[in-house]
Amino acid sequence: MSTTPVSPMRAQGVDTTMPVVLEARGLVKRFGALAATDDVSIQVVDGEIHGLIGPNGAGKSTLIHLLSGGLRPDSGHLLLDGTDITRLPAYRRVAAGLSRSFQITNTFRELSVMDNLLLAVQACAGSSFRFWQPRNAETALHDHARELARQCALDDALLAQPAGTLPHGEQRKLEFALTLASSPRILLLDEPMAGMGPDETRRLTELIDSMRGRFSMLLVEHDMQAVFRLADRVSVLVAGRIIASGTPDEIRANPAVIQAYLGDEGITPDAGGSHDS
Ligand SMILES: Nc1ncnc2c1ncn2[C@@H]1O[C@H](COP(=O)(O)OP(=O)(O)OP(=O)(O)O)[C@@H](O)[C@H]1O
Ligand SMILES: [Mg+2]
After folding, report:
1. 1-97+184-277 adopts what CATH topology?
2. Distance (Å, rounded) from C-alpha 274 to C-alpha 230?
3. What pLDDT is stored for residue 107 in this prediction?
4. Model confidence at 270, in pLDDT bands (50, 70, 90)?
5. Ligand 1 pocket, 127 CB below 6 A?
6. Is the minimum distance from the CB of 61 to ligand 1 under 6 angstroms?
């Protein structure tokens, strides 16, 4: 277990002296001559929602793939709870508590919402139901699946529907519920609000907010209102490099960040993205 504290800084709603859950040290990923991530170091502490923002092509998704194990870094290290997982394959990272959500492949579109949940619960429970009476095990699986649906505000009436027929916002809730089945230590979210209308974005923001403290989250998002409302801290990636990390207020007021990114998004120290509203 790591007990390495991050440097103390004024934080809104998160204690940055908490243990570091996920740490990247000097991650480099090159595609030919392009360094998509160029010596990226970042720390996510226990229970925080850490926003990751930056212009198109900055390297945010590349970093998420490096963290989740879809891509291997050319150099650098990755630690989960202080253990080096740089060489761990993606599926073993999930088992260790490092989950990624909002990948289309998460759901079986032809299966009902309930069957999707049951499969996820059963897969994540592994052999722990082995010693139960079959009927008790089935009841426990159903109870767990229903509980995940409830936590993610999935309506009971939707449970029998094929997952592929759910409206966009409800599919996102289902994907979230499937991810919760693995009891993550940290969840990586790459643009969860993409393609959503204002109402769906608001509901998903509330759902993410309701999970605050249960596990850490690294949230990549272009919706600045959502990021600045949700994040305890924000890191800014520009051209493969982290140019700033800090509280939402610190990031909003950072001249280099305004010049490189937030100015174009219409976010200034006085406008947009209130953290507490
Ligand atoms: N598999 C790949 N092969 C070659 N170049 C790639 C590959 N994946 C990403 N890139 C390049 O790496 C850079 C970073 O891309 P990435 O998708 O990580 O950016 P991003 O910050 O997620 O952008 P966006 O906000 O548009 O999602 C871009 O220049 C992109 O074209
Ligand atoms: Mg991206």
Report:
1. Rossmann fold (3.40.50)
2. 10
3. 78
4. low
5. no
6. yes
